[in-house]
Design brief:
This protein is mainly beta. The protein folds into three domains: 73-214, Immunoglobulin-like; 220-414 and 423-449, Glucose Permease (Domain IIA) (Distorted Sandwich), CATH 2.70.70.10; 457-716, no CATH class. Helices cover 11% and strands 40% of the residues. It has seven helices and 43 strands. The protein is elongated, with a radius of gyration of 31 Å. The chain starts with 9 loop residues before the first strand and ends with a strand.
């Protein structure tokens, strides 16, 4: 006998008999890139109308002298075609990996909405002319399907002038919490992008076409659910400022209390500790080593109030910079850690003074994923309590900010748009952060659940399968929604009636990030609409079941994303039509996968799925009494050694009938069993025994006999 599965597989039993079947304060926090003493910077304090918190920010007017080109990691490219009508320039692009532009991929604002991405490209332009050139316009073009999308960005006169043999950079960037010139795209994503740079006095643009691909490095989310109270989530989105930090995050905390608030109950936000994020533990996103640290920057005196004049901000901002953090190395980051994680460097910024863990207060200190680094605060260039994080490529040990900007993606946690989650328990469709960033759009923050388990998951995540049988229609969706958030997807759904009530049997397997969809209780018309919709979206049907519910034919179906072996599906066809076309399908190289029947009135209707798969031969019997099924089983299984891979049950009057499919060759059928005409307790006992011995459930078919539920089951390994 084969070795048992390492993960216990179990069912929670049948529910067939006697089952009867939770003031709004908005605060936006913003931060900037750190003050770098090696670059001459212009410091500004700006007030924004998007929220009640403002921001101190920095920008740089740095020009790179050509005499230093050999010390700078640029690879300048020339346009494929140049003429006297185009300027002589070399351009180097970021962010690039392996010669391709990388973008920032995110899920939609719910798991039911299309994935999104943000594209922000920096062009380092080297003027190789003997005279000054002036960039007037940049045009981006990309394809979505057969449609060409164009985005044109106009630069005011003299906005970006480049002297001979000088380099200047330009980026489709943004201000804080604004869309700006960043390109937002819904899936399906383009695979290339054309960039045209138009210069004053040159009628022909300098044009490059680059491949586009999603960035793929990811980290654990820097918070842990253990440090949060009930109905409390991280809040943020990928809408930081521009430049090097276009993909950075400013993160706060939101809690539900008659509405979402970022403040402690009965507090007005005027003090640092009024904010829920204040003091939250910051955790390492991966193993690494400390490159730079600071633990002595004073906490900013208080969050900036929202109702003061611009002059107030200018004066207070300058005073805080001069007195609190202006003299510290990378003081704009407040109390912080730069940690090298492999070839990337992460900045963990704005922590409470003295909160950085002592073991990390030395360069070269070893950091382990998940360790507490410090506590979220309000130090450095910050308008209020929050946590700032971004990544760059590693440049050299004494220059943590000297690398190239990259998207920051996560491999733990779940996210949903705040607008989509009006209160706890209102929307199950959270998206898993599986090498994805946090979605963003202006004024559309997200809630993040910092846990490896979905917030709605009520099952262990390491079982080999989850099965439920005898689930009443009225509680089926509720039970279904407790299972799939734990990382499972349905492979089998079976509907049936007992005493006029509709029940379901369902089998789940670990999804391993399969993209799938399932529907039940569909009419023929709605099933066809769903079939067409998912087919057009790149999904393929993998299971379909027909059943009677309140005297009407209904359908349940499962789709998975991606191409399959090719096949044919039909529903609601008469048994005669099915039989008349049987040989046609065989001649096309098709094999039946599902053949589900219902009898309504005097007619039998067939719903089927056929695929082009290799089985070494098959038998299909769509109309069998319980007795004739035993006879067929003896012939095809015991004598001819075919494997039973499918059963469906239905009623003709009061008589149970079965539809069955046998294959000569079937995957994962080294050992297998079928159990016949069992009541609920018998089925549960058989189920437990097979699973304890390493078998997986392939089929659960339910039907009514003598006003009681009966079950057929198939197990194999």
């Amino acid at each position: 006998m084969a070795k048992k599965l390492s993960a216990k597989i179990r069912n929670l039993g049948s529910q067939t008999e006697n089952e009867a079947a939770k003031k709004v304060t908005k605060v936006e926090i913003k931060s900037s890139k750190p003050l770098r003493p090696t670059i001459k910077s212009r410091t500004s304090i700006k007030r924004f109308s998007l929220g009640t918190i403002t921001s101190i920010w920095h920008d740089s007017d740095e020009k790179i002298n050509p005499r230093n080109l050999r010390t700078i990691d640029f690879k300048f490219e020339k346009a494929p075609t140049l003429s006297a009508r185009t300027p002589k320039v070399g351009i180097s692009f970021e962010p690039m990996e392996g010669g391709d532009i990388v973008f920032h991929p995110t899920p939609g604002f719910t798991s039911q909405k299309p994935w999104r991405c943000q594209v922000s490209i920096r062009a380092y332009i080297h003027n190789q002319e003997s005279k000054k050139i002036d960039l007037n316009e940049v045009i981006f073009e990309y394809k979505i399907g057969s449609n060409v999308v164009k985005k044109t960005i106009h630069l005011p006169s003299d906005k970006l002038e480049i002297e001979p043999n000088y380099i200047q950079s330009w980026q489709n960037s943004r201000e804080y919490h604004e869309n700006g010139d960043v390109i937002f795209i819904e899936a399906p994503f383009p695979t290339s992008i054309k960039m045209s740079f138009i210069f004053e006095g040159f009628p022909t643009p300098v044009t490059f076409t680059k491949k586009l691909k999603p960035y793929t490095n990811s980290f654990a989310f820097p918070f842990d659910i253990a440090d949060f109270s009930k109905d409390e989530f991280v809040e943020g989105y990928s809408m930081h400022g521009g430049g090097d930090q276009v993909f950075a995050y400013d993160l706060g905390v939101a809690k539900y209390d008659s509405g979402w608030t970022s403040l402690v109950k009965d507090k007005d936000g005027s003090e640092n500790d009024h904010h829920l994020i204040w003091g939250k533990k910051i955790r390492a996103m991966a193993d690494g080593t400390v490159m730079h640290f600071e633990n002595n920057v004073p906490n900013n005196w208080a969050p900036f109030p929202p109702d003061k004049s611009d002059a107030f901000y200018d004066n207070l901002g300058k005073k805080q910079m001069d007195e609190l953090w202006g003299s510290f190395d990378y003081g704009g980051s407040g109390n912080h850690l730069y940690i090298r994680h492999g070839n990337l460097v992460a900045l963990y910024a704005h922590m409470i003074k003295g909160s950085v863990s002592n073991e990390f207060l030395k360069v070269g200190a070893v950091v382990k994923k998940g360790q507490v680094l410090g506590k979220a605060g309000n130090s450095g260039s910050s308008s209020g309590p929050h946590f700032h994080v971004h990544i760059k490529t590693f440049n050299k040990a004494d220059d943590p900010e000297g690398g190239k900007f990259r998207p920051l993606l996560f491999n733990t946690g779940f996210v949903i748009g705040k607008d989509e989650y009006q209160k706890p328990g209102s929307n199950i469709n959270w998206s898993k952060l599986n090498t994805l960033g946090i979605p963003g759009q202006v004024k559309k923050p997200c809630l993040i659940y910092p846990n490896v388990k979905h917030p709605y998951c009520e099952y262990p995540t390491n079982w080999g399968e989850v099965c439920r049988f005898g689930l009443p229609l009225e509680s089926y969706q509720t039970e279904f929604d407790k299972i799939w958030p734990c990382g499972y997807y349905p492979i089998w759904v079976d509907g049936y009636e007992v005493n006029g009530k509709t029940y379901f049997n369902v089998i789940f397997r670990q999804s391993n990030n399969i993209s799938w969809a399932a529907r039940h209780q569909m009419s023929g018309t709605s099933y066809q609409k769903e079939f067409d919709k998912f087919s057009q979206a790149g999904y393929r049907l993998v299971h379909v079941n027909s059943y009677l519910s309140s005297g009407k034919i209904n359908y349940a179906a499962i789709w998975v994303f991606g191409k399959g072996p090719g096949g044919l599906a039909y529903h609601g066809k008469s048994l005669k039509w099915h039989e008349d076309n049987f040989q046609i399908h065989i001649n096309q190289g098709l094999v039946p996968v599902n053949v589900s029947c219902v009898k309504s009135g005097s007619k039998t209707y067939v719903t089927a799925l056929w695929e082009k798969i290799k089985t070494g031969g098959f038998y299909l019997r769509p109309v069998m009494t319980l007795q004739s099924f035993k006879e067929a089983f003896d012939q095809y299984t015991n004598k001819e050694k075919f494997k039973l891979v499918y059963l469906d049950a239905y009623l003709s009057g009061n008589q149970p009938l079965l539809s069955g499919i046998w294959y000569k060759k079937a995957a994962n059928y080294n050992g297998w069993f079928e159990k016949h005409n069992l009541n609920s307790s018998q089925f549960q006992n058989e189920y437990n025994q097979f699973l304890d011995n390493g078998y997986l459930t392939r089929v659960i078919a339910g039907y009514e006999q003598n006003n009681q539920p009966r079950f057929e089951g198939i197990w194999s390994k």
